[in-house]
Predict the 3D structure of the following.
Amino acid sequence: MLTMSVVLSLATLAEARGDEQQFRTTLIEASRALESGFLAEAERLFEQALALQPESRDARFGVGALYIQQGRYTEAIDVMETLKEEFPDDYTIINNLAWLYATASDHSVRDGDRAVQLAQEALLLQPNNFHVWSTLSEGHYVSGAYERAERAAQEAVRLSREAGADRERVMQYQQQLEKCRRAAEALTILE
């Protein structure tokens, strides 16, 4: 015979599992909405996920990525910098923060030197990650270090091919490489 405390404990456990499942489902839906460009829906779903688990790294990371896509850079920096402090060995957080600094359309936020520093930090954690090499390339590019940008882009192309990345991704890196190559050549002509 089950005691009342055991029954209550089982009920609490079942509720916690239900909340966890609801959280995971909501987080997956939010991520899909973000990837599909449904930003208002993604924001609504991430808010729901955070209501269930306010300290979730994944939900907060998703919100940071959402803010980047929305151009809400100050809010994105706040979220990502906090996550970086909490998870200093998470290269995806560091790389996304670097990408923000390298590509922000708001030039008051764009900071190539900070992007390079963060991308190098991420490379220490994941030296063979083509996404990070691409970010390093972009950081060097916006800093005007075109030859360094070109070398980093070459590495992004090489690693993406070796990893079997999808054709579209490899082509994006190839375009990045060409952009850097043209800038390096132009600078050489001007000197």
In short: Residues 66 and 154 are 29 Å apart (CA to CA).
